Amino acid sequence: MNDSSWGSPPPAGPPAGYWGPIDQGPVQGAAPAGPAYDAPEAQQTRPMPIVPDVPAYGGDQDDDRGTARLSGPLFRDETFRDETFRNEPFRDQTPSAQPYPAASQKQDPEPMPDASQPAPAPQKKSAGRDLGAAIGVGVGLGVVIIASLFFVKAVFVGVIAVAVVVGLWELTSRLAERKGIKAPLVPLALGGAAMVVAGYVRGAEGAWVAMALTALAVLVWRMTEPPEGYLKDVTAGVFVAFYVPFLATFVAMMLTAEDGAARVVTFLVLTVVSDTGAYAVGWRFGTHKLAPRISPGKTREGLVGAVTFAMAAGAVCMEFLIDDGTWWQGLLLGLAVAASATLGDLGESMIKRDLGIKDMGTLLPGHGGIMDRLDSLLPTAPVVWLLLVVFVGSG
User: Fold this and answer.
1) Would you place residue 223 in the very low, low, confident or very high pLDDT band (cuts 50, 70, 90)?
2) Burial grade of 146 (CB within 10 A; 0-12, 13-18, 19 or more)
3) Tens digit of each residue's pLDDT (9 = 90 or more) over 158-195
4) Of the candidate ranges 44-53, 203-212, 286-295, 350-359, the one whose mean pLDDT is the lowest
5) Are the beta carbons of 101 and 29 closer than 8 angstroms?
6) Which of 285, 271, 300 has its CA nearest to residue 145?
7) Can you list the positions of beta strands (E) in the chain?
8) How far does Cα 85 stand from its chain's mean position?
9) What are the phi and psi torsion angles at 68 (to 5°)?
């Protein structure tokens, strides 16, 4: 094409070389178009397909200047930019091709909610246990403890020994089921009960001697079985002997003082109040996890509730229950109880996570097993015993 062709008026009628629809061939009477280049090259060229003016996807027919929008790419190597057809090539170059789905093929949007229908009520937080059963069992245990504690101290020592033996059975059973660790139950049960009685009769000295003899009995008892797993079995046995009966011995040692019953009540009240405060405040206001890898249900707000409740209860108990006790000593005692009870609960949660279980047993409806109730009591017992000895003496 030379420069003189620019700006000249278009010829009347269809231009030379114009092709009609693809299925009809060239227009009759059209002058043959001369090749723009040499003949061999002209034979290799093909006419440009006509792109129809199809409305753009989305419903708009024309742009601001009244020109029709192109609905798709012109060449085969181009791709659509619409989310629905991303990376999908233009399949058909004929004028009848529809690069976008018709309006009848569009998916209807999700129906809007009916404003006349009431919104669903938000789900309430669940305690995760049968609260009625838990309260009933707790009250029953409290009656047994108080009755034995204030009428016959020896009966309360027997209650401690029974709780220890049941706790040993639960823990050793779970170790055997989940980890294949066979901590010998017979020497642990006999030694644990003897440990509690020795602590009540002979104090700390008797408790340590009974602990040493129990560990020796575990070593000897396990020798009657094959040596495979001996080390892990006896190691677990010594740990269980220390964790359950030895720590429980400090409760019996509190009972030996003249105001022993009041000391045990203080110990129980502070631990229960700490757990209750942590549960109530954490359930209502808890948002920041305390130790999510160990116990996802515990929150920092719950810990604050435990400390607050325990300190208040400690001040009241030390002022009115403990001989020669003062309220400020109760504040310190409550703080220490909240810390030890929380650590004890986390420690048992760590054991249960390692074992892959939620509860140690099912003996107490709404509570789990005995060990699930002793988790915060066991590590708190030596703390309370020691602080009471420091504050008011051994009695």
Assistant:
1) very high
2) middle
3) 999 999 999 999 999 999 999 999 999 999 999 999 99
4) 44-53
5) no
6) 271
7) 289-291, 295-299
8) 40
9) -75, 140
